[in-house]
TrEMBL record:
The lineage of its organism: Bacteria, Pseudomonadati, Bacteroidota, Cytophagia, Cytophagales. GO terms for molecular function: oxidoreductase activity, acting on the CH-OH group of donors, NAD or NADP as acceptor. This is Gluconate 5-dehydrogenase. SUPFAM superfamilies: NAD(P)-binding Rossmann-fold domains. It comes from Hymenobacter arizonensis. Belongs to the short-chain dehydrogenases/reductases (SDR) family.
Length: 268
């Protein structure tokens, strides 16, 4: 008698009928996000500017996994429009968009030019809005869907500048945190606006997930580890489950939420 009761729950994380678009899906965190989605049956289209990097990142999967590349520059509305139209034509209607791509210029907090500051804001917030706006006709045609934005713990708290005293090259710039805070608010805004159309909008805020290049600086990694209640930095695979959950039926009643994956950094 238990089987009928359990059956609906067995597919909560099944993504086998979902086409998921991921901007910037071949970077340090993007490849883990994409791999997690694929492992749960999704068909994934990575939108990006570097096809050779995509091929290198997913070389072991291209022959067997439903992962595809679509040229797209998220800083350009015409490019985003063309990319989404091509995806619709080649793969069908998307169920999920993950806004993971980012770009920025400048680092020194009190010496950014106007152009650098604007570029950083656009790279984290403008690009998210651009892609969200352009995907809406396809989600509406599909009768609903999900949008997942990538924010950051630095959209919630200020950096602990002592962590950068001996490693100024890794200093987190002010326009990054400001833009990521805007992403969190943009997520809430559109969750409210699009809720009646069965479109859920959520975001994920990663904590300290330094790239492989940054991890070569052991002293800086140690500074990050000391600030985490779990005593370690994030591994890319630590982030994958959040995107599987927010892409799946398991999160159909979740919208406007900021899922923090930071090892506890922001709790103290």
């Amino acid at each position: 008698m238990a089987a009928p009761l359990l059956a609906p729950y067995s597919s909560l994380f099944d993504l086998s009928n979902r086409l998921i678009l991921v901007t910037g899906g071949y970077g340090h965190l993007g490849r883990a996000i994409v791999s997690g989605l694929l492992s749960h049956g999704a068909t994934v289209v990575v939108l990006g500017r570097n096809k050779s990097q995509f091929k290198e990142t997913f070389a072991a999967l291209l022959a067997t996994a439903p992962v595809h590349f679509q040229l797209c520059d998220v800083s350009s509305t015409p490019s985003v429009r063309e990319a989404l139209a091509t995806c619709r034509q080649q793969y069908g209607l998307p169920q999920v968009l993950i806004n993971n791509a980012v770009y920025s210029e400048g680092q020194q907090p009190d010496a950014l030019t106007d152009e650098q500051f604007a570029r950083g804001l656009d790279g984290s917030t403008g690009s998210v809005y651009r892609c969200l706006r352009e995907v809406l006709p396809y989600l509406r045609e599909n009768g609903g869907g999900k949008i997942i934005n990538v924010a950051s713990m630095y959209g919630m708290v200020a950096p602990d500048f002592a962590a950068y005293d001996q490693h100024p090259q890794f200093l987190n710039p002010p326009h990054y945190g400001a833009a990521k805070a805007a992403v969190i608010q943009l997520t809430k805004y559109f969750a409210s606006y699009l809720g009646p159309e069965n479109i859920q909008v959520n975001c994920v805020s990663p904590g300290a997930f330094p790239s492989e290049r940054v991890q070569k600086e052991g002293g800086f990694v140690a500074e990050l580890e000391r600030r985490s209640p779990l005593g370690r930095i994030g591994r890319p695979e630590d982030l994958a489950g959040a995107f599987v959950y927010l892409s799946a039926a398991a999160s159909d009643f979740v919208t406007g939420h900021n899922l923090v994956v930071d090892g506890g950094w922001t709790i103290r």
